[in-house]
Write a structure and sequence with these properties.
Elements lengths: L8 E4 L6 E2 H13 L13 H4 L5 H6 L9 E2 L3 H9 L3 E6 L7 H12 L8 E3 L10 E4 L2 H4 L5 E5 L11 E3 L2 H11 L4
Parallel strand pairs: 1-4, 1-6, 4-5, 6-7, 7-8
Antiparallel strand pairs: 2-3
Helix pairs in contact: 4-7
Bound molecules: magnesium ion.
Magnesium ion binds next to loops.
Length: 184
């Protein structure tokens, strides 16, 4: 049986949106390479510019535990709960690039977002298959191809991209959705 919600749908990314990857990368970079940087110092830089040592970003993302121990973005749990009252939410993560992350991400969601059921968790590769009314993400490679309204979550690597609606935090996400005035 096909079930179809009449509520509008939102695809919510994990890394850089509900999970704080920037501070984890800064921490792992210091632990792995002995090089100290800060979240403030990497603003406006690409991943390669922020962590230039030895293809560091990709290596750090493959370290067991990296995704399981991410901090939750400030205000994300409360805001996602609030949006869930009105919208059908899907957590959508292009996780197959990092196979180790798959179970870690499911466990992380179970710990921090237990109110998101397994039907609403989508682990994928190419997000252009996602057909939600809204997409909240930090990467143009996903937002540029979404069929719904794109909402760019601020991140160190996307400060030079200006063609999507930008939000800086979860309070701004809630304010933006209030302005849409969608019917429940
Ligand atoms: Mg992301």
């Amino acid at each position: 049986m096909k079930t179809q919600s009449k509520r509008k749908t939102i695809a919510i990314d994990m890394d850089g949106v509900i999970a704080d990857v920037e501070s984890q990368l800064v921490k792992y970079y210091e632990q792995t390479y002995g090089i100290t940087t800060t979240v403030e110092a990497i603003q406006g830089l690409s991943g390669a510019e922020a962590f230039p040592e030895d293809s560091a970003t990709k290596k750090m993302l493959n370290v067991p535990g990296f995704f399981r121990t991410l901090e939750v973005m400030p205000g994300a749990i409360e805001a996602v709960k609030k949006l869930a009252e009105q919208y059908e939410l899907y957590i959508v993560s292009a996780a197959t690039e990092f196979p180790l992350s798959l179970l870690e991400k499911i466990e992380w969601l179970g710990e921090h977002f237990p109110f998101i059921g397994w039907r609403n968790i989508v682990m994928c590769g190419d997000k252009s298959i996602i057909d939600t009314d809204y997409m909240i993400d930090d990467h143009c490679k996903n937002l540029d191809f979404c069929s719904g309204k794109a909402i760019m979550f601020n991140a160190h690597h996307n400060l030079r991209q200006h063609h999507h609606t930008r939000v800086h935090n979860w309070q701004e996400v809630l304010a933006l959705f209030e302005s849409f005035n969608d019917q429940a």
